[in-house]
Amino acid sequence: MLYFVDKGPVAHNCTASVVHSPKGNLILTAGHCGNGSKYAFVPRYRTGRAPARQPYGIWAVDRVFKDPRHTARGPGSDLDFAFATVKPDNSGRQIEKVTGANTLTRTPSYAEWVTVIGYPAARHAPADKAVKCRRKTTRLTGYKQLRMECGGFFGGTSGSPWLMNFDERTGKGQVVGNIGGAGGGGATDSVSYAPFYDDEVFKLYADAVADVDVVKRPPLPVSLGAGETWQHAKQLVGGDYTGDGRDDLLAVWADGEITLHPGDGKGGFTAERRLRKANSAWKKATTLTAGDFTGGGRSGLLVRWSNGKVSLYPAVSAAGLGRETELARANSVWKHAAQLTAGRFSANGRTDDVVVRWSDGEVTLHTDVDGRGFHKETRLRKANATWQRAALLTGGDFTGNANWDLVARRTDGELALHQDVGAAGIGRQTRLRAPGARWKGVQVMTAGAFTANGRSDDLIVRRSDGGVSLYADTGTGLGAERTLVPPKAS
């Protein structure tokens, strides 16, 4: 047990275990355990009378070493581990000499048989009895964390070691994780998480062994947040709104708030900027797309509202949306435009052409859209059931040809690429994903030039669980997936 003793009454708040080290003075626990400076460690605590319940005595914790980037949610929760040095006992012995130690080991995979031992807090286990469970782990989706299903791991078990090859006789094993991670280590007492041990845990171990003055780490990439938040992202639109040649991500939220997430050109994003506070007007934005409608090289925003009005915001920037230009009045035919997506679908080389999927499945192309409105219209498909089922549509330069392409996600989860879209037609279709539940759960989709090749061939999707993924360098095959936002924790 790990006791926190410098604020108020002595309280058991976490579990810890001894790990082998050159000096024999290290214990392992969770990074979120305690915020004070005085701890006491009681190894192999037992119920009953003292001193029998303290078979190895009480050990004073000297220093605690945590990764400064640890957070309760997002990528920082993958760093929820900590080491502490323990002072020698009155005889000058180090703790490992008295108790023995587990061996710190890299986690081999997300599917491992482990034995987990921890001490629930007194309110859950009045007899201070340890809980032990042997289970095969899985992965917590969206995180570098293990997941285990086993009841009884209430508060107080944070930091409990996850042991491979546990020896019941010696009580030792190879520690490949500890209760910690998203939400402090679990959703309920029956579902627990543990950080996946890779280089980061061994860097911290080396700092603890060396007794460094300060643990220093480079910052993690800026996190977009958690799935619980991004479930409310109603629209996502990629475009170069900051004018730096790198595409950014604009989000319209369910409450009408608008945020801008500037791209770093490497598939990541810098600090969020709010362009509009939550408001009732932008709740009515039904479909949006971004394009260079003024010839300035930066992306403007085209919006179809629920009442059929179409607006152009040609000067979107980090400072705001800029002025609005009305391209179609309320109650116009545009009320039936189910999807808009801009791209380079004609000869002028600008992303000022707009493909429209209408509610009856008709598909039209409108070239050279600008502040004066929609000009030449070409029908690409008559009204039909197939395109009625194209629930999501986005344009991008997925094949590198003169004309851009379309990616459509249909209601059954099929994902299809339509190559070289233009006045001649909708292009040749290539299936990127067969119908299925995973892509059926995609609720928002956009494309842009988010990575280093500078081409608008990176696909970003937001799923129903709030998870946001980037599929970099998508072409006639779907690009490699990168998690931008982990899904809502299960």
Helix and strand arrangement:
Layout: E1 2-4, E2 11-14, E3 17-19, E4 26-29, E5 39-41, E6 59-66, E7 82-86, H1 95-99, E8 103-104, E9 113-118, E10 131-136, E11 138-139, E12 145-149, E13 161-167, E14 172-178, E15 186-188, E16 191-195, H2 199-210, H3 227-230, E17 233-239, E18 248-253, E19 258-261, E20 273-276, E21 285-291, E22 300-305, E23 310-313, E24 325-328, E25 337-343, E26 353-358, E27 363-366, E28 377-381, H4 385-388, E29 390-396, E30 405-410, E31 415-419, E32 428-433, H5 437-440, E33 442-448, E34 458-463, E35 468-472, E36 480-485
Parallel strand pairs: 8-14
Antiparallel strand pairs: 1-2, 1-5, 3-4, 4-7, 5-6, 6-7, 9-10, 9-13, 11-12, 12-16, 13-14, 15-16, 17-18, 18-19, 19-20, 21-22, 22-23, 23-24, 25-26, 26-27, 27-28, 29-30, 30-31, 31-32, 33-34, 34-35, 35-36
Structure characterization notes:
The protein is mainly beta and 490 residues long. The chain folds into two domains: 209 residues, Beta Barrel (Thrombin, subunit H); 259 residues, Neuraminidase. The protein is built from five helices and 36 strands. The strands form eight sheets. The chain has a seven-stranded antiparallel beta sheet with strand order 2-1-5-6-7-4-3. Strand 1 and strand 2 form a beta hairpin. The radius of gyration is 28 Å and the shape is elongated. The two termini are 28 Å apart. The model has no long low-confidence stretch (mean pLDDT 92).
Lateral strand order in the biggest sheet: 2-1-5-6-7-4-3
Strand content: 35-45%
Instruction: Please tell me the total number of domains.
Output: 2
Shape: elongated
Quaternary organisation: single chain
Using the coordinates above, name the CATH class of the largest domain. Mainly Beta
